[in-house]
Amino acid sequence: MLDRRTIRALSARAALLVSLAGAASCGGPSAGDYTIYRIALEEQQDEPGCFPKDESPLAEAYDSTTFRTGQTLILYLATDDDAMLDTGGLVLRGTTDDDPYRFSGQAEDVEFPFSDDVVDSDRDGIADRLDPFVDADRDGKDDSEMAKDSSVDTDGDNVDDREDDDFVDADSDGDDDRYGEIVSDMRTIATLKVNVEMTVDGSTVSGVMEQTSEQRCEGKLCPPRLDAPCLSVQRFRGIEIEDADLVLDSSSPAPTP
């Protein structure tokens, strides 16, 4: 699930990506072109919804800094219409048709907090301990009582699945057929949306990124209220770096939500 720390990390990377996009505008870039920028990111400004109970911690409310975060950005065009913003781990897609340039991206993470691996030998979505009728061998007899079904051997190894068989694998997929995942009707959805505007003026760039993170819940077991959407704004300025030597680290995987 996307927590606040993960969302902020993704947001910072996304902001950098955004700046790349605008940079490409000057000079009418075409497929195969790229531009390298060095930008300085201002401190991220978070709205009250980014904090528990919509109240920013007292310590953070009085914090301040004049430091900026430096980042190298690469803007490149795979086609004449598609601009890619690369920050070294995360890439955003956009276009360079408008001024200021606009880029956006979205990540969504879905979790089923009450899912569990249980014994569900007949794979009907009901745990055997709660199932009124269990029939793994599909013979029309209730497997839960020996008196009703004297033999249950779904994998054909001549060992009864219910008592003596240590591993039942009729479909040869390497998993014990008696176990399955039961998923409740409740699910949580964490979403991160990033929108960026960037302006290029000669060899300089400037822009702003807005990122919104939100968690919502669907299902009967959901709590009555979750945190409000978190809106964060971060501004940046930078310059084009000509004749830069790039060192690309292919060992760093792209972050995932």
TrEMBL record:
Residues 116-179 are annotated as: Disordered. Residues 120-151 have a biased composition (Basic and acidic residues). Residues 1-23 form the signal peptide. Residues 152-178 have a biased composition (Acidic residues). It comes from the Bacteria. Keywords: Signal. This is Secreted protein.
